[in-house]
Design brief:
The chain has a four-stranded mixed beta sheet with strand order 1-4-2-3. Helix 3 links the parallel strand 2 and strand 3. Helices cover about 35% and strands about 15% of the residues. Helix 2 crosses helix 3. By secondary structure, it is an alpha+beta fold. The longest helix is centred in the last third of the chain and has 21 residues. It has a domain of about 100 residues: OmpA-like domain (60s Ribosomal Protein L30, Chain: A), CATH 3.30.1330.60. Pfam families: OmpA (PF00691). The Tol-Pal system is composed of five core proteins: the inner membrane proteins TolA, TolQ and TolR, the periplasmic protein TolB and the outer membrane protein Pal. They form a network linking the inner and outer membranes and the peptidoglycan layer. It is found in: Cell outer membrane.
Amino acid sequence: MKKLAIPALLSLILAACSSTGTSTDTAAKVEDRSGGAGVATVTADGASGSGIAALTDPNNILSKRSVFFDFDSYVIKSEAKPLVEAHARFLVQNPQIKMLIQGNTDERGSREYNLALGQKRADVVKQALLLLGAKETQIESVSLGEEKPRCDAATEACFAENRRGDMLYSGEF
């Protein structure tokens, strides 16, 4: 908790110290060419403002993007809850950011069953993020079923790697 409080405190201090420029005579006018979309995207170098670099910092929990599930289950494990909470906080602090959650399964089961299970996995991650304060308009959930495996070997370790919900931010999908 201290790790999150210190950057937040520094941000508040820096914001309080910034000048607001009360003279309009010398202020430069800036034209908005964003097209009104107001959606920030994540770039490969991690730059885009408002803490986006944390998403690619391997030392930050936000760089981890997968919630893993047990066989034939769409219940978020207790060890994944801090990860989901961290991503929810990030979405709350960055309301312009969009997320896509891709539900994945291992190869066992029919195509239809795996698509349905993948959707349930994506939806449960989305629901958890919404309950923690993220907005419905920020998150989309889709199922990829067994179509995007991380590992192709027919081993239990490989199957476990493929049973996941991947959280992707704008610019990553």
